UniProtKB/TrEMBL annotation:
Example of a GO cellular component annotation carried by this entry: plasma membrane
Keywords: Cell membrane, Membrane, Transmembrane, Transmembrane helix
Domain (EamA) ranges: 7-139, 148-281
Protein name from the UniProt record: DMT family transporter
Length: 298
C-alpha cells in the first residue's frame, strides 16, 4: 500500500467518525457512558473478529507476549480516550467536544518528541496549528469557557494522541492490523461493561432505545473506522495520521448539512478550508522538497 492510499484510508476513517459523533451524544439520553462504551466496542469486537481470525490463520509467525502486551496497552489508551470524551459530553456541548478532541492534532507530535525523541517532518508543526485553527473556526469559535466536561475532553485528546503514537510503533512491525484492532476493541468492551455493571443501571428497555446508536458506533465508528486507522498507520506517521483524522470535524459539518439541513456559517467554511490546506500540505510539500525518500519514525 502506498502512503497516499494509507492517507485516503485515514480520511475515510475521519468521515465515518464525523458521521457518528452525534450518535455518541444522543445515545446517552437512554444509557450511561460506560454501558454505551462497553456495548459499542463489544459490537466492534464481534464485527472484526472473523477477519482477525482469518488474518491469524495466514500469519507467517505467531505474536509474542510483548506484542500482545503492546496491543493491550493500546486498548487502554483507546479506553481512556473514548470514556473521557463520552463522560465529557454529559456536561459540555457537541461543538466544544468536537473542537477540544481535535487538540490531539497538536498533542500528538509534542508527545512523540517528549516520549521517544522522534521529530516529525518540519511541515507537521505549521500544518498541525493550521488544522487546529480550522477546527476552532469550524466549531464557531467555541470552547472559550471551560466546564468539567471540557477538561475531561482535553484529557481524552491526550489519550487519543498516545493511542496514535503507540499504534504507529506497533502496527507496522507485527503486520497484524486486524488482530490489533480486535484486541483494542475487546479491551475497551470488557472495561466498559465491567465498570457499567458496578456503577450504572442496566435496563434492557434503555438499551433497546439506544440500539441504533450502539450499532452504528460499534460496527462503523468502532469496528470499521478504527481498523482503517490501524491499517493506514502502517504506512504513514502518527503526526501525519493526526492531521488526516482531524478531517472528522469537516465531515461532521458536511453530514450535518446533508442529513440535518444544517448550514455552515462563513467561519465554518473557513475552518473546512484550513483543515483541507493542512491535509494537502502534509501530503504534497514533503514530496516537493525532499531530495530523496526518507522514512519517518513517528
Amino acid at each position: 500500500m502506498t502512503r497516499i492510499q494509507a492517507n485516503l484510508l485515514l480520511l475515510l476513517a475521519g468521515a465515518i467518525w464525523g458521521m457518528g459523533f452525534v450518535a455518541q451524544s444522543t445515545a446517552m439520553e437512554a444509557i450511561g457512558p460506560f454501558l454505551f462504551t462497553g456495548l459499542r466496542f463489544a459490537m466492534a469486537t464481534l464485527a472484526i473478529l472473523p477477519f482477525a481470525l482469518r488474518e491469524s490463520g495466514r500469519a507467517v509467525s505467531p505474536l509474542t507476549t510483548r506484542n500482545w502486551l503492546s496491543f493491550g496497552w493500546i486498548g487502554l489508551m483507546l479506553f481512556g480516550a473514548i470514556v473521557f470524551q463520552q463522560i465529557g459530553l454529559l456536561s459540555t456541548t457537541v461543538t466544544n467536544s468536537g473542537f477540544l478532541t481535535g487538540l490531539y492534532v497538536v498533542i500528538t507530535p509534542i508527545f512523540a518528541v517528549i516520549l521517544f525523541r522522534n521529530w516529525p517532518h518540519p511541515i507537521i508543526w505549521p500544518a498541525a496549528i493550521t488544522a487546529m485553527a480550522g477546527i476552532w473556526f469550524l466549531s464557531g469559535g467555541g470552547a472559550t469557557t471551560f466546564s468539567t466536561g471540557d477538561w475531561l475532553t482535553v484529557l481524552a485528546a491526550g489519550f487519543c494522541a498516545l493511542q496514535l503514537i503507540f499504534i504507529g510503533r506497533a502496527a507496522a512491525p507485527t503486520g497484524r492490523p486486524l488482530t490489533l484492532a480486535v484486541t483494542q476493541s475487546a479491551v475497551v468492551a470488557v472495561l466498559g461493561l465491567v465498570i457499567a455493571l458496578a456503577v450504572e443501571p442496566i435496563e434492557w428497555q434503555a438499551i433497546r432505545l439506544a440500539l441504533p446508536e450502539i450499532l452504528y458506533a460499534g460496527i462503523f465508528s468502532g469496528g470499521l473506522a478504527f481498523t482503517l486507522q490501524i491499517i493506514g498507520q502502517r504506512y504513514t506517521t502518527a503526526s501525519q495520521a493526526a492531521i488526516f483524522l482531524s478531517s472528522e470535524a469537516v465531515f461532521a459539518g458536511l453530514f450535518g448539512a446533508l442529513f440535518l439541513g444544517e448550514r455552515l456559517p462563513a467561519t465554518g467554511l473557513l475552518g473546512c478550508g484550513l483543515i483541507f490546506v493542512a491535509i494537502i500540505a502534509v501530503e504534497v510539500l514533503p514530496q516537493l522538497f525532499a531530495k530523496k525518500p526518507a522514512a519517518e519514525t513517528i
